[in-house]
Design goal:
single chain; mainly alpha; Four Helix Bundle (Hemerythrin (Met), subunit A); two-stranded antiparallel ribbon; 64% helix; 5% strand; DUF1572 domain-containing protein; DinB/YfiT-like; DUF1572
Length: 171
């Protein structure tokens, strides 16, 4: 893999991380403090739990693994919290974790993108880890958006306001 391809890969990962963060921020703008910890049923997670889970997962994969820092994740705790953390604190927490991960990605070498390592018992290259972080963040961002739409009875959360999504491809 040449350095130009590696840089393009990292740039695209960072773009997608920023998109998920933007969508979560727009969702949070429409939610009350109480909405953050509501659950659709006893077996589902609240938006607060999803944010804590994303922070744990991105920290484990991005900061601990790619950033070569100690892995202190307590995964079960991410789902056991029921309240007590405000929506602004949660939003700040996910933004901080994503920003730290982006800094690691911006400084990662091509060799580290290709190097294999173990995370959660799985073996991934740095590329595989970056893809996991991105798809996992996007997956839960979709859940947050869906639950926000349900809570607020909205068809749209304004993610693409002002953009014509019907434009056809030219290439």
């Amino acid at each position: 893999m040449n350095d130009e391809i590696a840089q393009e890969f990292v740039d695209q990962i960072i773009y997608r991380l920023d998109e998920s963060t933007r969508m979560i921020s727009l969702s949070f703008d429409q939610l009350s403090e109480e909405n953050i910890w509501e659950r659709p049923n006893e077996n589902a997670n609240s938006i607060g739990n999803l944010i804590l889970h994303l922070c744990g997962n991105i920290t484990q994969y991005g900061i601990s693994s790619l950033g070569k820092k100690e892995d202190n994740r307590d995964r079960d705790k991410e789902f056991s919290v029921k309240t007590g953390i405000g929506k602004e604190a949660l939003l700040d927490k996910i933004k901080d974790v994503v920003n730290e991960t982006k800094k690691i990605l911006q400084n990662i070498s091509t060799e580290e993108l290709l190097r294999k390592r173990e995370v959660q018992g799985f073996t991934f290259s740095g590329i595989g880890i970056a893809i996991h972080i991105t798809e996992h963040y996007s997956y839960h961002t979709g859940q947050i958006a869906f639950w926000t739409k349900q809570l607020k009875n909205k068809r749209s959360l304004g993610f693409y306001d002002g953009i014509d999504l019907n434009i056809k491809n030219n290439d």
